[in-house]
Amino acid sequence: MRTHFAWATMACVLGLTGIAHADPPTVQTVQLRGDADHAEVAIRGAFEVPMYSVRSRDEGRVLVIDVVGAQLPAGGLATDGNVPLVSQTVATTSARGSRIELSLRSPAVYRARAERGQILVQLRPEGAAAPQEQAPAGQTAVQGMHFEQRDGRDRLVVELNQAASFHVVPQPGGTTARLEIRGASIGTSARTVEGPSGSFLSDARVRQVGERAVIEVNHEANVDGTAIRAGNRIIWMFTQQERATSRPRSRTIARERTYAVEGDDDQDSAEVAGFLTDVPLQVRGSRGRRRYGGRRIDLDFKDADIHNILRLVAEVGGVNVVTADNVSGTVTIRMRNVPWDQALDVILQAKGLGMVRRGNLIRVAPLGDLEKEREAAIARRKQQEQLAPLETRLVPVSYATAENLAARARELLSERGSVSVDERTNVLIVRDISDNLTDVEELVRTLDTQTPQVLIEARIVEATSQYERDVGIQWGGNVAMNSNQGNPTGLAFPHNVGITGGNFDNQTPTGGLSPFAGAVNPSNFAVNLPAITGTGQGGALGLTFGSVGGAVNLNVRLSAAESNGVVRIISSPRILTLDNHEAHIAQGTLIPFSQVSAQGVNTAFQEAKLELKVRPHVTSDGAVSMHVNITRDEPDFTRTSTRGDPTILKREAETDLLIPDGNTAVIGGIYTRNTGRSVDSVPFFGDIPLLGVLFQRRRVTDSRNELLIFLTPRIVNRAEALPSGG
After folding, report:
1. DSSP 3-state assignment of 260?
2. Measured between alpha carbons, how far is 672 from 665 in angstroms, rounded to an integer?
3. Which backbone phi and psi does 285 adopt, to 5 degrees?
4. What pTM was computed for the model?
5. 359 in the Ramachandran plot: left (φ > 0), alpha (ψ -120 to 50) or beta?
6. What is the full DSSP assignment across 433-446?
7. Res 681 pLDDT > 60
């Protein structure tokens, strides 16, 4: 058969990277000078004293210099000089400023300082002798240190009397960070400081080592520190890598076996997934929709032989292609600017072909043949599992119940496997092939952890203040005009006249109205508005005025009472419980009261108690979610029923909340204030300015009550019960 080739062309399209326009420059040049044992990097720009930070990574092989708030020139950063210690310089711009990364040929230590218009960084290989430096003018002194938390990071601020150069000593993998200030002494006010509550920094201390002031910070694992200079201060910022992903990631403990097309070896790479069709098959490394990242090409063919097309694609992609004997036919295709691997995928699908890739070797065959090979491989693997010898293992369970884990383990076993439980020793007896037994052991190790124990502490704070003032007056008297007194009116009528106060009753206090008697009976009050006074309450003053003959008498009694009191009650119930188990603690009293019924008078009891009910749940990131109910009831004997039974004052809060371990939350509060002002007066006369106070009783009351409920959960066995965040 004669094959006609019309015309064939192929062009490779390479992606070009665009250059972004930078803002007006502030960092201008980077100068390198030095030799194999010493290098100095000078970063010059249009700034006074810059804010910067220097840190190393990759075990000292990469030095990162961040200049806060700086920009790079529009045409890129110019690098002047070349030193054997530095292999590459890369400058980038971020929202926070500019970053300059120096790739080093060997691990090195650094020392940095800033001057007007430049940042100087000195490098030397690890183990080499340190170069001599000039200390700053005058004696540098460490005046103090303090911790602060800003921008989600913990920071140690070191106060100096003047700007000074410093050096952070790398401590990879340790729990102590070290910073040295050369030529510095320790001031009298400098002292050891404790880390803030809940921080991963425990403390910081400063000590004198020769002519250096050494500052050491103790911290938890996986903590990175970056130090910058800001005027006469050194700001040492710390971040913990685990906090960004504190939630433990899921772990795969068992995976269903996959089957290769050829052989049973497990040395294939992730690219072995080769694309067949959209038919769901078990293909090693398959991850759903395929992504293409090969070199982009143009293809334009008409009636081209499939073998020549495959050879052309293999040449462009740098791979080896082997085709089966039953692969034949022609292809007409026109593509522009497509990845070569995508073009190969489309060509094979158009011809009903499939491929299997192993490294840079691609085997192309009809799709039906590959599917038969895959089915044969699956059948062969299943047959091997059926013939594999069975093993029996004893898997001990420490904290969980073996009976509960048996159901989970049974899901990982094959048809030939079995699991049983020995309740006395809490051991799983598992029988299956070796690979499945390993999966079961990993499952048990993951689930068999200590159950978290949570200590719940509630604090109920009540504050009550009461103020009361009562001012009253009583006055009265009598006037007699008659013959007995020798002062009649001289009229026929009325010849005798008598006037006296008429406001009295059996409860009217009359003490203090007469200097000769403890009480006057009957009282003769014209105005009877007394304040409540008595033993232990208030005071009163009695005045008596009378004429010589006793014809005119005036009695006045002033009374006043004022009370002011503050009461504070703190209740703090605590209880320890397991995760997902409800706990209950109560303290109180039973108050008897009478019930009248057809059977007679019965005595019943009413509870008045302080009670805490809580069901905590510890989350995977170490917080505590809980449903809590707090009740505080107490009897009030100032308010009783007709039979003398006290009322019950109830205070209750019920809620669901999430609190980090060791933190305290205010879950509720009630604030009440009752104020009152009352005036008792004689009509008309009580409204007269100034003189009206002789006809009034004034009472003022102000009562305030505040209730706050605090809750603090603590996981007492956090390290043993919670999985690591790795």
Report:
1. coil
2. 21
3. 80, 0
4. 0.49
5. left
6. -HHHHHHHHHHHHH
7. yes
